[in-house]
C-alpha cells in the first residue's frame, strides 16, 4: 500500500501531447478515479502508472521510490483490462494462479492464496470452470482475483464495468468498493461515467484534453466545480452564458437575456461568464433573499421520484427539479412561472472558449 505521485507527466505520441504535464497525488488506501470524456488521456495516464508505457517527460513515484521507467512487474502495480483478458484454455484456478506460478511460489502456498482471492470475489467453488462457462460479471471477478492474488501495492482498473449490463454494473461497483475497503488497497479507477465515479470514489480527477481540470471529493466536484467543463460534465446542470456588468470586489451583478442578478460571488477577471445552477437548487416557491426570474413553462417532465420543470426565460431554457408533487400540480406549458434561486447556489465561472 503506497502513495502514488505524478509530477509534470507528459506523454507524446508522434509529437502530439496526449497527456500535457499532469500532477497528481493519490493517497494510500484511497479509491481514486480518473474521469473524463473519450480521448482525454485517462488510459494513457493509467498505463504509465502501470508501467506498460513510459512518460515522454516527468516522474512517477510509488511512496519514496521513483518508478517512472521501472517495468510493470518490478513496481507492484497490476492493471485489470476492460476485456478482462482471461486465458480461455485455463480454468479459473489456473487463471488466478498464473502470476504466482511465474513467481515460482510453492504449490501449497499458491493453493491457499488462490482460495483466498476467490473467496474475496465470491467465486469459491468455480475453480474448475473455464472462462466461457462464466457470466460477464463472474469473468470480471476472476480478473480482479487474478490481480489481487499477487498482492499488488496498487490496483489499476480501466473501465472495468463497461462490458456488463446495467444491473450487474451496479452490483460489481459495490463489490469493487467492498473489496477495496476490506483490503485497504490503493485503487486507481478509470471511467467516463460521472455517476459511477461519484458513487465509487474517495476522490476524482476530472480530465479534459490531456490536462487535469479539478481534483476533489465527489461532493466538492459536484457542488463546487471550478470550470465550465467540470460543471457541465458532472451530470445535468444549467450552464447559462451571462455578462458581468457591475463589480464591487468579489460581488458582481450579471446580466443574461433581460435579467439582472446582483450580489453574486465571482473572483475571476473575465466579464464573459457562465452561471452554473444545479436543477435541484432552483425553487418554485418564494425564498427569502433569493434572486427570482420570471418566465414561462416550456415542459413538465415526471421522472417518478422527482419532476423537472423546464422554464423559458427569453431564449434561455432553465431546468428546475423538485420532489414536491404539490409544487408542479397544475403547471402547464406556456403558463407563467417564477424560479427562485439562493445567491450562493449560483456559481459564476469564466466562460471557456
Ligand atoms: N499508442 C498510441 N499512439 C498514438 N496515439 C495514441 C496512442 N494511445 C493513445 N493515443 C491518443 O492519445 C489520446 C488519449 O488517449 P487515451 O486512450 O488515453 O484516452 P482515454 O481518455 O482513455 O479515452 P477512452 O475513454 O476512449 O479510452 C487520444 O487522442 C488517442 O488517440
TrEMBL record:
An example Gene Ontology biological process: transmembrane transport
Compartments, as annotated in UniProt: Cell membrane
Domain ABC transporter, first and last residues per copy: 4-234
GO molecular function per UniProt: ABC-type polyamine transporter activity; ABC-type tungstate transporter activity; ATP binding; ATP hydrolysis activity; transmembrane transporter activity
Catalyzed chemical reaction(s): tungstate(in) + ATP + H2O = tungstate(out) + ADP + phosphate + H(+)
Highest taxon above the source species: Archaea
NCBIfam families in the record: potA (TIGR01187)
Function as written in the Swiss-Prot or TrEMBL entry: Part of the ABC transporter complex WtpABC involved in molybdate/tungstate import. Responsible for energy coupling to the transport system.
Name listed for the protein in its UniProt record: Molybdate/tungstate import ATP-binding protein WtpC
Organism: Thermococcus kodakarensis (strain ATCC BAA-918 / JCM 12380 / KOD1)
Species classification: Archaea, Methanobacteriati, Methanobacteriota, Thermococci, Thermococcales
Amino acid at each position: 500500500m503506497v502513495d502514488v505521485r505524478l509530477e509534470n507527466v507528459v506523454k507524446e505520441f508522434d509529437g502530439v501531447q496526449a497527456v500535457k504535464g499532469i500532477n497528481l497525488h493519490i493517497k494510500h488506501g484511497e479509491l481514486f478515479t480518473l474521469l473524463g470524456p473519450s480521448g482525454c488521456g485517462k488510459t494513457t495516464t493509467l498505463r504509465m502508472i502501470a508501467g506498460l508505457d513510459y512518460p515522454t517527460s516527468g516522474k512517477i513515484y510509488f511512496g519514496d521510490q521513483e518508478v517512472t521507467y521501472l517495468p510493470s512487474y518490478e513496481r507492484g502495480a497490476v492493471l485489470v483490462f476492460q476485456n478482462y483478458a482471461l486465458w480461455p484454455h485455463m480454468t479459473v484456478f489456473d487463471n488466478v494462479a498464473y502470476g504466482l506460478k511465474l513467481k515460482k511460489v510453492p504449490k501449497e502456498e499458491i493453493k491457499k492464496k488462490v482460495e483466498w482471492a476467490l473467496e474475496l470475489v465470491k467465486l469459491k467453488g468455480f475453480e474448475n470452470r473455464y472462462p466461457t462457462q462464466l457470466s460477464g460479471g463472474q469473468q470480471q471477478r476472476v480478473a480482479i482475483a487474478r490481480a489481487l492474488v499477487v498482492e499488488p501495492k496498487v490496483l489499476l482498473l480501466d473501465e472495468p464495468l463497461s462490458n456488463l449490463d446495467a444491473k450487474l454494473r451496479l452490483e460489481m461497483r459495490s463489490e469493487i468498493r467492498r473489496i477495496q475497503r476490506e483490503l485497504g488497497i490503493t485503487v486507481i479507477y478509470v471511467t467516463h461515467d460521472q455517476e459511477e465515479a461519484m458513487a465509487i470514489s474517495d476522490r476524482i480527477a476530472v480530465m479534459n484534453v490531456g490536462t487535469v481540470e479539478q481534483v476533489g471529493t465527489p461532493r466538492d466536484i459536484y457542488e463546487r466545480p471550478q470550470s465550465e467543463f467540470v460543471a457541465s460534465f458532472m451530470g445535468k446542470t444549467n450552464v447559462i452564458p451571462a455578462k458581468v456588468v457591475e463589480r464591487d470586489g468579489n460581488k458582481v451583478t450579471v446580466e443574461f437575456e433581460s435579467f439582472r442578478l446582483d450580489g453574486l460571488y465571482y473572483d475571476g477577471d473575465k466579464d464573459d461568464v457562465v452561471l452554473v445552477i444545479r436543477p435541484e437548487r432552483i425553487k418554485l416557491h418564494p425564498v427569502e433573499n433569493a434572486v427570482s426570474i420570471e418566465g414561462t413553462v416550456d415542459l413538465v417532465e415526471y421522472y417518478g421520484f422527482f419532476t423537472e420543470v423546464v422554464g423559458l426565460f427569453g431564449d434561455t431554457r432553465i431546468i428546475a427539479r423538485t420532489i414536491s408533487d404539490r409544487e408542479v400540480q397544475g403547471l402547464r406549458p406556456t403558463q407563467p412561472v417564477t424560479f427562485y434561486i439562493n445567491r450562493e447556489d449560483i456559481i459564476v465561472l469564466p466562460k471557456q472558449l
